[in-house]
Amino acid sequence: MRFLFSILFSLVAFAAFSQQKVSGRVTLQTDGEAAIGVSVKIKGVSGGGVTDLDGNYSLTVLNSNAVLVFEYTGYVAQEIVVGNQSTINVVLSENMSTLEEVVVTGYGAQKRSSISGAVSSVSSEDIAERPILRVEQALQGRTAGVQVAQVSGSPGSALSVRVRGVGTINNSDPLYIVDGVPVEGLDFLNPNDIETVNVLKDAASAAIYGSRGANGVVLITTKGGKRNQAGTISYDAYYGIQSPARLLDLLDATEYATLQNEAFLAAGQVPRPEFVDPAVLGEGTDWQEAIFQTAPIMSHQLTFAGGAERSAYTLSGNYFSQDGIVGGEKANFQRATVRFNGMHDLKSWLTIGNNLGFTWLKRNGLTENSQYNSPLIRALNMDPTTPVRKADGTFAYSQYADTDIANPVNAIEQTYDTWTSNRLVGNVFGDVKLAKGLTFRTTYSMDVTFAVSNRFFPRFDLSNVPSISDAPAAEKNLVNSVGVANNTWKNWQWENVMTYTKNFNEKHDLTLIAGTTALSNRFDTNGGANTNLPSNDPDDAYIGNTIDPIESQSAFQSASESSLFSMFGKANYELNNTYLFSATFRADGSSRFGANNRFGFFPSFSAGWIASHEDFWNINAINFFKIRASWGQNGNDRIGDYSFTTVVYNGQNYTFSPDEIITNGSVALSAANPDLKWETSTQTDIGLDLEMMEGRIGFTADYYIKETSDMLYAAPIPLVAGTAPPIQNVATAENRGLELTLNYRNYDHALHYTIGGNISFLKSEVTGLGRGGEPVLSGYVQSATAYAAKTDVGQPLGSFFGYVTDGIFQTPEEVEAHAFQNTGTAPGDIRFKDLNGDDVIDLNDQTFIGNPTPRISYGFNTDFEFKGFELNIFFQGTEGNDIFDNTVRYDFSYVNRPSTALKRWTGPGTSDSEPRVNLSDPNQNVRVSDRFVKDGSYLRLKTLQFAYNLPSGWLKKARMQKMKIYVTGQNLLTFTKYSGLDPEIGNVGGSLEIGIDRGFYPQARTVMGGVSVTF
Amino acid sequence: MKNILRLTVFAGLFLGSCSKDFLEKDPIVGVTEENFYKTEADAIAAVNAAYATLQFQLSPAGHFRWFWGDIMSDDSEKGGSGDNDTNTLLQLENFKGTSNIDLLESEWGANYEGIYRANVVLEKVPPIVMDEKLKARILAEAKFIRAWNFYNLVIMFGGVPLADHVLAPSEYNLPRASAEEVWNLIERDLTEASEDLWVRSEYPLADLGRITKGAAQSLLVKTYLWREKWTEAKTTAEAIVNSGEYQLVADYADIFPVYGENNEESIFEIQYMNASGGNFGKNNANEGSFTNVYTRARGAFGGYGFNIPTQDFVDEFFKEGFEDPRLKSTVFRLGEPMGDRGIFTIDATGGFPYQYYPKKYFSNKSEDAPFGDPIPNGGTNDRVIRYADVLLMHAEAAFKANDENAARTSLNLVRARVGIPSINFSGQALLDAIYRERRLELGLEAHRFFDLVRTGRAPAVLGSLGFTAGTHELFPIPQSQIQATNGALTQNPNY
Lengths: 1015, 495
Fold this sequence. Notes:
The structure holds two protein chains of two kinds.
Chain A: H1 2-18, E1 20-28, E2 39-42, E3 49-50, E4 56-61, E5 67-71, E6 78-81, E7 90-92, E8 102-105, E9 108-111, E10 119-123, H2 124-129, E11 146-150, E12 159-163, E13 175-178, E14 181-183, E15 194-200, H3 203-206, E16 217-222, E17 229-244, H4 253-266, H5 287-291, E18 295-307, E19 311-324, E20 328-347, E21 350-364, H6 375-381, H7 408-413, E22 416-435, E23 438-457, E24 460-461, E25 476-477, E26 481-504, E27 508-531, H8 549-552, E28 554-575, E29 579-590, E30 599-610, E31 622-636, E32 647-649, E33 654-656, E34 661-663, E35 667-668, E36 679-692, E37 697-713, E38 728-746, E39 751-768, E40 776-781, E41 786-791, E42 799-802, E43 805-808, H9 812-817, E44 830-832, E45 847-850, E46 856-866, E47 869-879, E48 882-885, E49 933-935, E50 938-949, H10 952-957, E51 962-976, E52 996-997, E53 1004-1014
Parallel strand pairs in A: 1-7, 13-16, 48-52
Antiparallel strand pairs in A: 1-4, 2-3, 2-5, 5-6, 8-9, 10-15, 11-12, 13-14, 15-16, 17-18, 17-53, 18-19, 19-20, 20-21, 21-22, 22-23, 23-26, 24-25, 26-27, 27-28, 28-29, 29-30, 30-31, 31-36, 32-35, 33-34, 36-37, 37-38, 38-39, 39-46, 40-41, 41-42, 42-45, 43-44, 46-47, 47-50, 48-49, 50-51, 51-53
Chain B: H1 2-22, E1 31-32, H2 40-52, H3 65-71, E2 76-79, H4 87-93, H5 102-124, H6 132-157, H7 179-196, H8 213-226, H9 230-243, E3 266-270, H10 291-295, E4 306-309, H11 311-316, H12 327-330, E5 331-333, E6 356-358, E7 382-386, H13 387-400, H14 404-417, H15 428-441, H16 448-454, H17 458-462, H18 479-484
Antiparallel strand pairs in B: 2-4, 3-7, 5-6
Helix pairs in contact in B: 2-5, 2-6, 5-6, 6-7, 7-8, 8-9, 8-13, 9-13, 13-14, 13-15, 14-15
């Protein structure tokens, strides 16, 4: 005791004697300008300071052995021994290597160099280079193995994100975790608030998320303040104009009438008298012009951030608004967000904090991607001889169309469909330092959403003579109606995690993590509808405002809930910074699983070897070389609630009594499966990371095999059962892929540049469908009254399936010589291949005719920086995917067609691809065939940004830290053979509706200007 | 520090111990099967759910009674917007249909859904403590519904799997029973049902629409005709006549309008209404019929223009040297008003070259549903068995049982109602007259094709349309069902 005392005394005394003051200035090697906010610490001592606006710092050290550590994000950290210097000036050089970057993994963080799994990252700097409208876009083309595609180009639409292909016929969305909170959908998140996005791709990385990690995990961290950081105020804003990138070449009125006349004659009918002289009809109406428009987009963001020694915070607010290029304000999406992230070291052993984000969003919806009644499908199919408006200014209707194809401009005008959501996502946490290296974190998270859907169907009638109401049914709505639905999602999660880190003998690094999670979800919905409101004003559209509330009012209410309890553990061990080992284990109990399988267990292992850290490594050109391998299992629990039990449902009604009283009936609609459990995906990954030329060249490669087993599928049971099939764990699928990422950075000179790219190859197939192996049909095509896609063993999910065309019959002899197709088959009709050789073309002559999933996805970008100027060019594309073109409603003889129809067959030798026109199509040229399957590969200039950073001298006068002005173009160029409006078509319905163009709402070409200022 | 450690351990234990209850979530809406089938109300709800299957028309593809009964016959053709509009129906109509046509699978599945729900009633209701008379009636209603669905199956597909109880998963591969066995079950169910069912006048008005004793007997008569049990058919038909529960409506034109629903002639009528919230006549929770919009003219009439009467059918109404008065209640002809929806002109129908449209299931605009998706939700009840049908079946059975007088009497009752001359033929001419009367009286009510098959006249009448004897009496067994049972089901001959 006395001994200790004396040491302490002597230390204090020594300190008192040799305290010395050090000061200096930190500058950046890149531009020689002051480095503001650089953290300056004394090694081994808590506290420290930051550089001021001129890059100056000053602090007091205890002795000349003290070591100063200068740290600045994106720059190589420097350590300098003080010695007897009183002034130490430092020049920081930019860090080109990404090895030291800390990557957020499940329930922890690791240096990139230490990771033995497959993790892709996108940082806020990447995002800043190209403004994105939604978080998912940050991943598109940036992360190998993550395929991102637009579900619709309309404002506020989700994107489909597929990590390493689609491994299941069920929900294929990855698990999104925002600041530790699992969330559904990302529309609430403001992209400017994102610090990093990390994608856990291999099973070993995702296994810590157990029964929910099978589709990959996307970990999103929002910006928090940093300790010891001068307060900043930033304002970011942009404004842009969106316009359609492309319009289709359709028949004009003269061409349309010419073909109609031919079609009538071919069917033995007298052509319409008004088409006798097609030339007088001129060009007619361009319905695409009528519905497309330019539309504004804007964003404003204000951020306050800062940090003291013991606390840090970020407070931000954002407003975003986007109109649609179809529908304008009727497709408007608006979002306002407020975020407060803060943390405070309350005690030496306790840190508390929070990440809270509130979002208000409002989306006006139009009917989209519908072959029946979307404005787009109507614009593409409406005849050009009908004007948009009549002479009196009211909307016109087509004399020829009856169902479905109605005036799209009127339809947009009559749409009042709004989704308004208020959502709070966030957490509060406490970090407790229990002992050296041992910390405990408890986090309570919530995700609470209140969303209201309001719909109003106004009264309208496009009839020329309203008294007889001559307009077809789709062009009038004689009784208006209103509907409202209130939805509430209340999810909470309580997570407790213990972390222990220890370094033994400078050789062994050990991290142990153990934790529990309890998660509860509840969904409530209720609403009602009413009809016949005296007022036709959308502002009066309330259920109470009706003439007869009793007779026509309807109401509904429903609720469901689920819960999850999990325990997990993880061990990382690193030997000599060279040999890496990691193992995870998770046990999940879920209310969604059957009583017989309530708990699931998910293990994983991974290992890595950093060969370049071995003593024998003498390849100087390669400064980092790591090979790694991982194996693990994940689950997919998105099977809906209560699937394991037999529920007797009400509402199987029948009508009795002369007054037609609806009388309740109750029955179980599907068989139960108490054995129901999660889907399992087992994945093996082999990877390689290397860096050359001190980080100037970075290369990563991964090869994986991902097998999904126990896939949840309501495999059709024989219909003799009389009930819907129970969901069973029966199907299997396999994905194999290769992912390559290559980057070259050069910051050696005033011109900084980066060239990088990534490419992913994917092969996926269904390997089993359980029971009779009956294939799953999807992608209903109304014009052929048949399904276009079929999921079958040995094929990729949602593959196109139909007839194979073989040119056009040129002569009656050719028709005669070929297998029987249809009674009316004649020259000019399509010849279909008789695949089974039975001399009859029927359903048995169909085969697989296309694959909607890209075999190759890639992205590449180049950044140039020169004296404050920045140029960023980003391309993204896919290869080897097909699109089923379902944009023409051939089942109606009066619809307009693409101008390629002009190349129709009119006599022997005139065409071998475009069949004759005929009103009744006796040969059924319209059947699902490879005629409609088109190459959907594309290469797109996704972003082109040119920016200028104002020089620091000027900034200083204006008391600013940073000011950047930029111009960005999005979707400026697209190279594709696809003839439709947009080749970037993701899932447009269920998980098996992939790459079917039903009048896809195209992404806009956007040009915007922005400014970013930091004070 | 120790306290914190303790707290941590406590937190872990707490979560661990509560997890069992925490993870047990029963449905909030709906009840589990164990908690149901306890009360009289449950029993009624159970049989109502079986009734709901009578309304099925799309599940998932269309399987309307008039698809098979009318379009497959010489009375009507598919129609629609062209050959590509539900082309598979055209293939079937031309007797070129294949076993993978989804319409067949839908018909198959819908009937078994009805059979399943009837079986649930027959298994779950007996133990319920409740009024015994009501219980007996509910079980009888279920037996009728089961018989009705098997009847639909056997006349279309021949022998089918005999699911006479709720099947366990191990029984899903049930092979086909013989047609004879299926007919036996139908006959047994209907015989038993007609003992416990109430006669029409016994039901309170609130139960109008429920299966009556008369309905079970009528379907039994049909069953006897198919089985050529002439005496039983005749006796049972006479029991219906003698019950005094039914009589012919004075004016034929009053049968099909909305006010003619459940009239004194109606024996078995599937109830539909126009005012429900759902749409497209889909299986569940919907009370509307899709037939109205499906068979209405296109263009200004807002329909889909299916089930177009043929010229041959219309000509039949003129063969006695005058226009049979029933024609004007059966088809729309050019220039006639289509209810309150406007005058029938080619232009108004969207330019389709059809000269006739079916009238019996036409609904006026004023009868459209006031809300929901009003266009596809028709309210017209499906008149499955009318008293006139029973009289004509009686005539046929009596003829075959060598009682020509009784045959002529019943036949002439039907003719007298529409004021056309009595018939005094005998022998084959009388039988032909009875057959012909069925075509006229019951035209476009989904009887024709099955009448032709049942009486063996199909090859002669439909041969020119592609019908081949020995093949097209039956439709192909849906391919998907053969595959789903790993081939336990066998295909019908020549498919």
